[in-house]
Amino acid sequence: MSAAFPARSALGGAPPHPETGRREFLSRILLRLTGGLSTLAALAPLPGYLRSARRDSDVGGTTDAGPLASLPTGTARVVPHRGRPALVVRLPDGPVAFRAVCTHLGCIVHWDGKRGEMRCPCHGARYDLSGRPISGPARGPLAPIPVAVEKGAIRLG
Ligand code: FES
Questions:
Q1: Is 84 helix (H, G, I), strand (E, B) or coil?
Q2: How far is the C-alpha of 14 from the C-alpha of 21, rounded, in Å?
Q3: 18 confidence band (pLDDT: 50, 70, 90)
Q4: Which residue of 6, 123, 135, 141 could cross-link 131, Cys pair, CB 3.0 to 4.6 Å?
């Protein structure tokens, strides 16, 4: 016990009463526990906030991808959708959309209107109009995104 609490006499003062040393020790422990609990209490809402933020972005409704009239057939635009870029392409039958994230290493895929396909600028992956890879290092298809046209506006689901 005395090894954990050096005697004050070693510092030039009177040795502490054994009860005083124990009280100081307990006070310090309680102070640290209280501080730790306060920190935990302050951070307690954080996981819930992060979960709700994720839920909102994953489930939270649709994305307005702009007016259909401003996207001529054979053109495309990239819009943010649930925290990631989405590529919206206007085909003769209507708009289609995909996550614009290359399945090789995650670069942003672009629309190549001359060839009528989607291309990745990083390593040259090419995707057809259904999102399937047709050449290059990508092995998986681009993830499709549901599209609807409501009151002349393109909406991504
Ligand atoms: Fe797209 Fe490599 S990241 S081809």
A1: strand
A2: 12
A3: low
A4: 141
This model's pTM is above 0.70: no
Any atom of ligand 1 within 6 Å of the Cβ of 138: yes
d(CA 83, CA 63): 11
pLDDT band at 35 (very low <50, low <70, confident <90, very high): low
Q: What are the residues facing 107 on neighbouring strands? A: none
What's the CA-to-centroid distance between 139 and ligand 1, angstroms?
Answer: 10
105, 109, 112, 119: which to mutate for ligand 1, most atoms within 8 A of CB? Answer: 105
Q: How far apart are CA 121 and CA 106, in angstroms?
A: 11
Does the C-beta of 102 come closer than 6 Å to ligand 1?
Answer: yes
Residue 114 has pLDDT above 50, yes or no: yes
